[in-house]
């Protein structure tokens, strides 16, 4: 079964850091572009970051550029998002996603995890 | 920055055709995907590359994209189709989502 399982969310103070993890199974992880999409409470979807299968190419939304680092461990089938200098507007449910093809190929995000909640508050 | 605009809400009667639009500058020159999200659930890809359906998505879901507008069409809409729908496109390697459209089936 194709599955993505996120972890690492929690309550963090403004300015703090957090590392999200995503455990993948059921597909060729190292061949897949992966990413993170977030959804603030009651709001729409916002793409956060993407990463090529090899890990050589990274992509970031302007809102997180310089504050987040996406990475992967293909030997463990894990994806990560290191978040720092967190702000209240980073509060959201963070989804791990698998791209159906290469970035920009039009295949969309065909696998979504259930998400992990990040709350930034003092 | 590139923006995708969707109507906040669309209503349709059961069995009728629902049309949800997504507008953006020269959107027809980009690939568009559509996602369905029901309350408490993760988004589900229902259309990719403008009009293709992933395996398991009913044939009543179709999509098109031309000019500045992409359209998701649900033919013979069922009560189970009531959900939030998001369009998505790429601006270079950046992923852009529309604001979402709540589809009410009543």
| Number of strand elements of chain B | 9
**How large is the share of residues in beta strands of chain A?**
over 45%
Which structural class should the secondary elements of chain B be placed in? mainly beta
Radius of gyration of chain A: 13 Å
Number of contiguous helices of chain B: 0
Count of discrete alpha- or pi-helical segments spanning 4 or more residues of chain A? 0
Chain-averaged pLDDT of chain B: 97
Structural class by helix and strand composition of chain A: mainly beta
- Which percent band covers the strand fraction of chain B? over 45%
**Largest interface chains and counts:** A-B, 25 and 27 residues
Succession of helices and strands of chain A: EEEEEEEEEEE
Uncertain segments of chain A are: none
List keywords for this structure.
heterodimer, A: 122 residues, mainly beta, 7-stranded mixed β-sheet, 4-stranded antiparallel β-sheet, globular, B: 106 residues, 6-stranded mixed β-sheet, 3-stranded antiparallel β-sheet
Please specify the SSE layout and strand pairing.
The complex is a heterodimer of chains A (122) and B (106).
Chain A: E1 3-7, E2 10-12, E3 18-25, E4 34-39, E5 45-51, E6 58-60, E7 68-73, E8 78-83, E9 92-99, E10 109-112, E11 116-120
Chain B: E1 9-12, E2 18-23, E3 32-37, E4 44-47, E5 61-66, E6 69-74, E7 83-91, E8 94-97, E9 101-105
Parallel strand pairs in B: 1-9
Antiparallel strand pairs in B: 2-6, 3-4, 3-7, 5-6, 7-8, 7-9
Notes on the protein architecture:
The complex is a heterodimer of chains A (122) and B (106). Chain A has 122 residues and is mostly beta strands. Chain A has strands at 3-7, 10-12, 18-25, 34-39, 45-51, 58-60, 68-73, 78-83, 92-99, 109-112, 116-120. Chain A is 0% helix and 50% strand. In chain A, the strands form two sheets. In chain A, strands 2, 4, 5, 6, 9, 10 and 11 form a seven-stranded mixed sheet that branches. In chain A, strands 1-3-8-7 form a four-stranded antiparallel sheet, with no helix packed on it. In chain A, a hairpin with a 6-residue loop joins strand 5 and strand 6 (58-60). The model of chain A has no long low-confidence stretch (mean pLDDT 96). By secondary structure, chain B is an all-beta fold. In chain B, 0% of the residues lie in helices and 47% in strands. Chain B has no helices and nine strands. In chain B, the strands form two sheets. In chain B, strands 1, 3, 4, 7, 8 and 9 form a six-stranded mixed sheet that branches. The chains are: A mainly beta (122), B mainly beta (106). At the A-B interface, strand 5 and strand 10 of A face strand 3, strand 4, strand 7 and strand 8 of B.
């Amino acid at each position: 079964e194709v599955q993505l399982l996120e972890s690492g969310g929690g309550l963090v103070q403004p300015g703090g850091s957090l590392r999200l993890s995503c455990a993948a199974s059921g597909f060729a992880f190292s061949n897949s572009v992966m990413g993170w999409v977030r959804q603030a409470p009651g709001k729409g979807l916002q793409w956060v970051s993407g990463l090529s299968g090899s890990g050589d190419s990274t992509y970031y939304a302007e809102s997180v550029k310089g504050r987040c680092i996406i990475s992967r461990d293909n030997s463990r089938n894990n994806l990560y998002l290191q978040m720092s200098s967190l702000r209240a507007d980073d509060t959201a449910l963070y989804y791990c996603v698998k791209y159906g093809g290469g970035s920009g190929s039009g295949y969309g995000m065909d696998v979504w995890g259930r998400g992990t909640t990040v709350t930034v508050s003092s | 920055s590139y923006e995708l605009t969707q109507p906040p809400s669309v209503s349709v009667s059961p069995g009728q055709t629902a049309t949800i639009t997504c507008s953006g500058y020269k959107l027809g020159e980009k690939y568009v995907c559509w996602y369905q999200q029901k309350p408490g659930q993760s988004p589900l890809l229902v259309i990719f590359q403008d009009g293709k359906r992933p395996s398991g998505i009913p044939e009543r879901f179709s999509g098109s994209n031309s000019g500045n507008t992409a359209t998701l069409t649900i033919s013979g809409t069922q009560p189970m189709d009531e959900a939030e729908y998001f369009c998505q496109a790429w601006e270079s390697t950046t992923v852009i989502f529309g604001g979402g459209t709540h589809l009410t089936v009543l």
